[in-house]
Amino acid sequence: MRLILLGAPGAGKGTQAGFIKDKYNIPQISTGDMLRAAVKAGTPLGIAAKKIMDEGGLVSDDIIIGLVKDRLKEGDCAHGYLFDGFPRTIPQADAMKDAGVAIDYVLEIDVPDEAIVERMSGRRVHPASGRTYHVKFNPPKAEGRDDITGEELIQRDDDKEETVKKRLSVYHNQTEVLVGYYNQWAASGKPGAPKYRKIAGVGPVDQ
Ligand code: AP5
Ligand code: ZN
């Protein structure tokens, strides 16, 4: 199974990815998680990416495409993968098409902007695993602690209200165009075209 999860910041891509990767036993390729790991490790990529991420902008296509291509060479991607937060621009999507990276399904998680700010302000994450909670909508079993490791949860630096608004506008300006891109490809019926499904992301997490 080879999937793309498409959707605005805070739509629930990471949350749903957690279920899908377990069900199909495929790796979750989250470019956001990969960048946050680089920031934490203090690599040159992390140092350059931190400023862009804190401002809510997008890291350059060349860097992201290189990261993902390297990741796809790892053995655990041989039987499938789940892209979370990637591709995010037409050049990123074209690069995957040109490289012959197969996609079976594109799942768009649809959540109106009004719901996003509340989701982000209550989000808590376990940095080592990327597991995501919400203080009200998806609380951990013990307050402030990861369910599996018991380690401390943190708030993401880019979840400040101003940054969230910027990230939403970047989504509408640069990423939402991929809705049309993948819909058209799916409708073309060409060999290798993915199937496209739009899913309402406003119900409870398990729904
Ligand atoms: P990234 O980490 O990809 O962030 P994002 O796309 O902005 O998405 P989020 O992780 O914020 O949201 P999500 O959809 O995963 O929602 P979640 O499940 O956590 O990217 C971060 C930055 O890295 C970018 O801004 C950019 O700078 C850079 N970057 C990354 N990829 C890039 C790329 N390809 N190209 C260039 N730059 C790139 O859920 C959110 C909250 O809502 C949680 O608290 C959750 O518990 C809660 N929630 C989830 N579902 C529900 C529900 N159904 N009801 C109520 N609450 C819910
Ligand atoms: Zn995420």
Cofactors and ligands: BIS(adenosine)-5'-pentaphosphate, zinc ion
Quote the average pLDDT.
Answer: 96
Q: How many structural domains in the coordinates? A: 1
Shape: globular
Give the CATH architecture. Answer: 3-Layer(aba) Sandwich
Provide the succession of SSEs: EHEHHHEHEHEEHHE
Helical percent range? 40-55%
Structural class: alpha/beta
CATH topology: Rossmann fold
The helix count comes to 8
List low-pLDDT spans: none
**C-alpha termini separation:** 21 Å
Query: Class in CATH?
Result: Alpha Beta
> Widest sheet: strand order?
2-3-1-4-7
Query: If you compute it from the alpha carbons, what radius of gyration comes out, rounded to the nearest whole angstrom?
Result: 16 Å
Look at the structure and name the CATH superfamily.
P-loop containing nucleotide triphosphate hydrolases
**How does the major sheet shape up?**
5 strands, parallel
Q: How many distinct beta strands?
A: 7
User: How much beta, percentage-wise?
Assistant: 15-25%
